Amino acid sequence: MVTAGYFNADCDGDEMNQHLPQTAMSQMEVRHLFNVESIYLTPQAHRAGIGLIQNGLLLSYLMTCKDVFFAESQKEFLQSACQYGLRDESMRPAWSNPRVQLWTGKQIYSQTFSPGLDLSKTVDFPASKLDVAFDESIPWPEWVRQMMHPSESFVLIQDGHHCAGRLCSKTVGKTAMSVIDVMVRDVSRRAVTKFLSDV
């Protein structure tokens, strides 16, 4: 589904036919055209041409909310669902007591990122009734205001760890300076393949 736009398929009943190439030259051409790793950046705008859509986008948005926690059995289920496996199987829980241990959605989602991914981006979410104003009498630095804001509009990823913010189409979609765009440029195309497969 992620690559459907590249082939001009809009999923409304489109049909794609595949022909078996006969000559060595046609086989090389098909290998180049159908190689997903070669189309991560669009040649026209030199930005991400592939991004998460539909279920992957919804999962990213819901899983990276501040109030999302997973028990150990849920964490293990998510680990088993990842095709390439998680980066750090022994990550420490965000909250622990003698009876239960909880991991945040951001912690688990971070495991799909490759080390070396650094991204900071402010996303404009519509104002909601939950937005609260900071106490203006306290001289908060701007980065504290952004990071602690209830809308989670400031996304911060450091060395592959999702520290703050809620992921949305502007951070994992087909936009400039998205996770995929930065990962292709700074980490590797193989890392993008693993990310897209695991999400």
How would you explain this protein's 3D organization?
With 199 residues, the chain is α+β, with helices and mostly antiparallel strands. Helices cover 33% and strands 11% of the residues. The protein contains eight helices and six strands. The strands form two sheets. A three-stranded antiparallel sheet has the order 1-3-2. It has a three-stranded antiparallel sheet with strand order 4-5-6. A hairpin with a 4-residue loop joins strand 2 (95-96) and strand 3. Helix 7 (179-186) packs antiparallel against helix 8 (189-198). The longest helix has 10 residues, at 24-33. The mean pLDDT is 78.
Comma- or semicolon-separated keywords:
199 residues; alpha+beta; Enzyme I, Chain A, domain 2; three-stranded antiparallel sheet; 8 helices; globular
Question: Which H/E pattern describes the elements?
Answer: HHEHEEHEHEEHHH
Q: How can the largest sheet be summarized?
A: 3 strands, antiparallel
Named CATH topology? Enzyme I, Chain A, domain 2
N-to-C CA distance: 12 Å
Helix content: 25-40%
**Which structural class is indicated by helix and strand composition?**
alpha+beta
Q: Regarding CATH, which class?
A: Mainly Alpha
Number of strands: 6
Mean pLDDT: 78
Uncertain stretches of 5 or more adjacent residues: none
What is the second-level CATH architecture?
Answer: Orthogonal Bundle
Strand order in the largest sheet: 1-3-2
What percent strand?
5-15%
- As a whole number of angstroms, the C-alpha radius of gyration is 20 Å
What is the count of distinct domains?
A: 1
Query: Which of globular, elongated, flat, extended, rod-shaped describes the shape?
Result: globular
